[in-house]
Design goal:
single chain, mainly beta, seven-stranded mixed β-sheet, four-stranded antiparallel β-sheet
């Protein structure tokens, strides 16, 4: 139900804009996570459907921006000033309003930042 795309290879300081298209239903919360090789999955940020309220991990604040197009049921992750440490597989996730955790996951898209 979630399809992530738009990753790629970019030089340090560059930008990428992955997207996550949801199908089948509308979710109250959508989020991005990432997982680098040999590391645990890390929360990147999330956004609400209704108010577009966003929340970010400290490591990406000021560089990454999450947005949603509710008409297309799609979430975006604008990544600017990318660093080699941002290299990871980026996953989108979604949950219903009263769920305690993210229930639905996309397949992931690879982001590689070269130095």
């Amino acid at each position: 139900q979630l399809q992530a795309s738009g990753g790629g290879l970019v030089h340090s300081g560059g930008s990428l804009r992955p997207s996550c298209a949801a199908s089948g239903r509308t979710f109250s919360f959508m989020a991005w996570f990432r997982q680098a090789p040999g590391k645990e999955r890390q929360f990147v940020g999330d956004i609400t459907t209704g108010g577009g309220i966003t929340n970010y991990a400290d490591s990406v604040k000021g560089r990454f921006t999450i947005s949603r197009d509710n008409a297309k049921n799609t979430m975006y992750l604008q990544m600017n000033s990318l660093k080699p440490e941002d290299t990871a597989v980026y996953y989108c996730a979604a949950r219903r309003a009263y769920s305690a955790s993210y229930e639905y996951w996309g397949q992931g898209t690879q982001v590689t930042v070269s130095s």
